[in-house]
Each structure stands twice: as C-alpha cells, then as structure tokens.
Amino acid sequence: MSAPDVVVVGGGLIGTATAWRLAEAGADVTLVVGERSAAASRVAAGMLAPVTETTFTERTLLALNQASSERWPSFSAEVVEASGRPSGLREGPTLSVASDADDGARLRTFADYLDRLGLRHDRLTSRECRALEPLLAPTVRSGLLVPTDWSCDNRVLLEALAVAAERAGVREVTGFVHRVESTDGRVTGATLADGTTLATGRVVLANGAWAAQVDGVPTVPVRPVKGQVLRLDPGRFPGPGMTVRAFSRGNEVYLVPREHGHEVVVGATVEEQGFDHRVTAGGVYELLRDAREVIPMTAEYALAETNVGWRPGTPDNAPILGGCELAGLTLATGHHRNGVLLTPVSADVTAGFVLTGELAEVVTPFTLARFAGPPPAPRLRAVPGARGPEVVR
Ligand SMILES: Cc1cc2nc3c(=O)[nH]c(=O)nc-3n(C[C@H](O)[C@H](O)[C@H](O)COP(=O)(O)OP(=O)(O)OC[C@H]3O[C@@H](n4cnc5c(N)ncnc54)[C@H](O)[C@@H]3O)c2cc1C
C-alpha cells in the first residue's frame, strides 16, 4: 500500500464524513474504521436539535450547533449526490411537551430562556399539542413547537457517507489504531493493533468515546457517557408524526419517528458507567414507562431493538477540534450529545484544517487548548534570614 496523505481513525459519522471531505478535495485517505457496529453513530436517535437540546450553561456550544444546523440542507444534498443514496434527513419540527404542573413550569422556564436568546418557537396549549400530534396523552398540559429542530436517520446517513467516501477514493481498513507514531514532535505514522504501521505525516483522531485510548497522542479529556435507547416498531398501529420530547413527571424522554414509519427511537439514559455494555432492566423499564406516559399507543408497539452507545463526553460537553501540540495530529472528537447534528460542520472544518493548516473561526473556541489551564502559580515560602519569601518552582 502506498503511503496515504492522511489516516483518519474511526469509522463513525465524524471520521467517515471527514474522510469523504478530504478525498473529495483530492487527498489520498485511509480510514481505519474500528468496529462500526459499536459506533455511537449507529445507536443515536438522530435529532438535529440545537434549540431543544440547548441548556442554560452551553451558550458557546449553541452557536456551533446552529452553524451546523444551517449547513444540513446543503450537506444532505451533497451526500445524496455523491452516494446515490438517501441521507436520512427529515425536515419536520420537534414538539416538546410537559406532563404535569412541575413539568409545565420547567417547560415555561425553558421557553423564557429561548425568548431571551431569540430562538424561534411557539408555545402551545394542551389542545394545540394534541391537534398537531393526536397520539399524545390527554394529560399533556402544554407544549413548545420548534420548527427548525429536525432529525436524521443516522444509520441511513452513515451508510450513505461510507458509499460517498468509497466513491471518492477513500481506502477503508478494518482494525484499530493502537498508536500514533511521531519523531521530534511530528506525526510519522499510525500503528494498528496487528502491528502494521501506515506511514503518514497526518492523522485525524475521530474515534469518538475511545479517543483517550490511543497511545502516542496528547491527553484528550474524553470519556464514555453511556446511553441506552430502544427502537420500537409500530407495525399496524399509527406512529407519531414528528419528534416528540417530553418532561414527564420529572424525567426526560424523546420519541423520534423515522420517515418510513417502521421505527420510533426512544431515548435515552445518561449514565457515567464507563464502557459498560449492559442493557439493563431498569433502563428499558424507565424508557418504556416514560414513552407510554406521553404516547400511550407505544405500549402496543413491538420492542424491536435495545442498544447501548457511548457518547464521547468532554468536561464542557463540547467537541474537541483542530490541531494540538503534536504536529500533524488533528482532533475531531468529544461530540457528546450532538455528534449527528455536528457532522456537517465538523467534517468540513476538520478537512479544511488538515489541508490548509487554518482553523475556521466558528470552531476556534473548541480546540484542545481550552483545557490546558494557566500554568501553576509559584509557591512562596518564608526563608529565615532572607529579606522576602523564596519562590519554590
Ligand atoms: C444514546 C445516544 C443517543 C444520541 N442521540 C443523538 C442525537 O439525537 N443527536 C445527535 O446529534 N447526537 C446524538 N448522540 C451523539 C452522537 O451519537 C455522537 O456524538 C456521535 O455519533 C459521535 O460520532 P463519532 O464518529 O465521533 O463516534 P462514534 O460514532 O462512536 O464512532 C467512533 C468509531 O471509532 C471506532 N474506533 C474506536 N477506537 C478506534 C481505534 N483505536 N482505531 C480505529 N477506530 C476506532 C469505533 O469502533 C467507532 O466505530 C447520541 C449518542 C448516544 C449514545
């Protein structure tokens, strides 16, 4: 095999989309996929939800999420064109609802916050909610319609991206990168778990929750955040017509229907359990209970799949993009709860950085450098007989 210009590590949405963008731009790319069946990109619900997913503490991330949201229509069209397959994009709205009085207060507080940010939404009464989504429980008290929060069937997207990448000339290698090789602070290659080394001066680390496991790279503060999700099949029963999110008796649940009507994704638990792969009775119970509280009809659906995935979490819930102290290594990880939404912007910006060395302004707050912190302050100690304290380094 000739030496590739770039080795991309990780065959999830971020790695595959980045490899495609690089190859489209003329680079010779090898994509080491790892194990696609374990990728969060296959487990995710696929909400493209900068508005309903935002929280009071994530203003900087919101701007990036919105930037990616705006790219989705053109990104989707390019994926369809390049792969000859659907992208999975569904341009429907998201309806957030509240079950009881406390949930209603929580939803109102959230809507007030959206008002302050100038984010578009419509407040709905119980009756208006049920006119939009007739499957909702009559107990639903109020709602919030967000027309710009869409969804994407992430499995369909991942398949399309893999085809687009292959057509653009990306070479896929099955296996895992064990170590990034370097000499004098510059990348020289990537060694796989089987001992093969791919010589290259440029590596993109895009292996999601596993980013901290690769040797030879600077410390990346990424940890796995476990999430359990269910896939229900409505069969002969009607499914919801749009994404429904709910505050339900203090819990949060979402139901994301697919275009074809045979799948409703119900999620998700958020668990700090490392790479625990167990689907638990409690996790499944709570998701089914909360889904039924919001849409009673879900009790009739078939339980088609239960899955565990690992969100690549970071200390501030935002991704890590761009370069680092190791020349030739580009980071594209830490996408946490928003990796499907962020795929267009992350892939474009990462490919651009690899090819030009310039980082697009939209992601400058998201480099690894933000975790470096100030150098430790010198400690002072009193020295007998000296005029002032001595500085201890
Ligand atoms: C339950 C759940 C629900 C979610 N819902 C949403 C949602 O609604 N909307 C949204 O935007 N996001 C959602 N997310 C988040 C989203 O799934 C992730 O942020 C995104 O998929 C991360 O993509 P990735 O390509 O970085 O990582 P992954 O998709 O995890 O892919 C990483 C790949 O790298 C491979 N790999 C690992 N180590 C190596 C190695 N050493 N060498 C080579 N390959 C390696 C793995 O096998 C894997 O295939 C959800 C996540 C979970 C878990």
Q: What does this entry show, briefly?
A:
The chain is of the alpha+beta class and 393 residues long. It is built from eight helices and 22 strands. The chain has a domain of 246 residues: 3-Layer(bba) Sandwich (FAD/NAD(P)-binding domain).
Give an overview in words.
Its EC number is 1.4.3.19. It catalyses: glycine + O2 + H2O = glyoxylate + H2O2 + NH4(+). It is an enzyme of class 1 (oxidoreductase). The protein is an alpha+beta fold and 393 residues long. The chain has a domain at 1-91 and 148-222 and 314-393: FAD/NAD(P)-binding domain (3-Layer(bba) Sandwich), CATH 3.50.50. The protein is 28% helix and 27% strand. The protein is built from eight helices and 22 strands. The protein has helices spanning 13-24, 40-43, 59-83, 101-117, 126-132, 154-167, 281-294, 339-356; strands at 6-9, 29-32, 47-48, 89-90, 94-98, 122-125, 142-146, 150-152, 171-173, 177-183, 186-192, 197-199, 203-205, 223-233, 243-248, 251-257, 264-267, 302-313, 320-323, 329-333, 379-381, 390-392. The strands form five sheets. An eight-stranded mixed sheet has the order 6-7-5-15-16-17-14-18. A six-stranded mixed sheet has the order 9-2-1-13-20-19, with helices on one face. The protein has a three-stranded antiparallel sheet with strand order 3-8-4. Strand 16 (251-257) and strand 17 (264-267) form a beta hairpin. Helix 1 (13-24) runs parallel beside helix 6 (154-167). The longest helix is centred in the N-terminal third of the chain and has 25 residues, at 59-83. Bound molecules: flavin-adenine dinucleotide. Residues 9-15, 32-36, 38-41, 43-47, 176-177, 206-210, 214, 227, 229, 267-268, 309-312, 333, 335-341 line the site of flavin-adenine dinucleotide.
